[in-house]
């Protein structure tokens, strides 16, 4: 058996799979991240993350023989920053990925220090809240005594790897989101920037995500029930593990992940970069990807459901399905939590345009799906213009269960979407990495099987083309007004 574990934003999941990709068992435990201040997002790497890994393992091994586990791989939300002492004890909660925006001043500082063009040339992207380097600099600037006591820095997945094996290893994909420390063109730590940003902290050894990087040690065996000596692969960031699980591994493949946010990963054939996108290392050795993300998608439909008095989700979907394409002239800009790609504006806000007394909740719910769909179409165009032709779109995530949503997206974008049979996500991709890394299956093995293909309805193309043109003007025409309104939403000081 192969054990895959993923620590996500809302839960930790573990799966056991055999070498043919058959899911043998799974276990999930819910958790929450912490938002101690505006713009901060944190997670307890040891008390929650490591504790849940041990709990998930124990639950699975109550039902299965742990002695049959032939390999382990762990992914996690990221890139995140965990700093520890010499005994691997975290000195503070993990600082999470792009949703933690505390290091704005440090982004500007590092950009001025190294030069925006030089960073972009080596990293394939501009510095943003997604990057780890500014978070490390933030620790040096704001918690200097704590930073002086730190002896190692980790991502969340590499911290779990260290707990399991004692090894200090970071995978190439996560490292490629640690800008400006990593040289993406040469897949190595940048010789001129690492010490300037990380100071006395040593460089983690680099490995590809499916590469065996250590074995379960005695302490981890006691905590988890895993046998000592089981190989453990390096692991990676959850979205890329999920793309791997869905067979998004070849140039032109694109993963479209429907969740509380929307995330995109496209596999590249060669190095390409675009300022509004993120170029990163991929999962397979030497591979490259382009990525993008929207700040609000499924969370918007959840908000609407609450707004409508917790009406059953199925009822709202049925009412939305009864509304004709275009929502009878209703258009929604889905920037309810700011926006990442393509505007990168934390002060952008949502907008509902065209409201009339004849519109009901079905119109609003459909308009939400359509607004997200227009945002997806924009990003797909950016990806294709900056990268390479999109050959295949694979839809994953919990949102794929709402067939109406995927149908609307296909209608708006004019693209087919493949929905895999197994949608459990990143932990399933981790199990495949463990099977590949240990040599149980070949490096080219894919477990993804198609469950459905969603095709666009040609009859909707004209109305969606007209609305898409208007959608493209909503943000630029209203940007300054939205910023004024966003400022009024800031909590009063004190």
Automatic annotation (TrEMBL):
<dbReference type="Pfam" id="PF00370">
    <property type="entry name" value="FGGY_N"/>
</dbReference>
<feature type="domain" description="Carbohydrate kinase FGGY N-terminal">
    <location>
        <begin position="1"/>
        <end position="244"/>
    </location>
</feature>
<keyword id="KW-0119">Carbohydrate metabolism</keyword>
<keyword id="KW-0808">Transferase</keyword>
<dbReference type="InterPro" id="IPR000577">
    <property type="entry name" value="Carb_kinase_FGGY"/>
</dbReference>
<feature type="domain" description="Carbohydrate kinase FGGY C-terminal">
    <location>
        <begin position="267"/>
        <end position="436"/>
    </location>
</feature>
<dbReference type="GO" id="GO:0016301">
    <property type="term" value="F:kinase activity"/>
</dbReference>
<keyword id="KW-0418">Kinase</keyword>
<protein>
    <submittedName>
        <fullName>FGGY-family carbohydrate kinase</fullName>
    </submittedName>
</protein>
<dbReference type="InterPro" id="IPR050406">
    <property type="entry name" value="FGGY_Carb_Kinase"/>
</dbReference>
<dbReference type="InterPro" id="IPR018484">
    <property type="entry name" value="FGGY_N"/>
</dbReference>
<keyword id="KW-0859">Xylose metabolism</keyword>
<dbReference type="InterPro" id="IPR018485">
    <property type="entry name" value="FGGY_C"/>
</dbReference>
<dbReference type="InterPro" id="IPR018483">
    <property type="entry name" value="Carb_kinase_FGGY_CS"/>
</dbReference>
<dbReference type="InterPro" id="IPR043129">
    <property type="entry name" value="ATPase_NBD"/>
</dbReference>
<comment type="similarity">
    <text>Belongs to the FGGY kinase family.</text>
</comment>
<dbReference type="Pfam" id="PF02782">
    <property type="entry name" value="FGGY_C"/>
</dbReference>
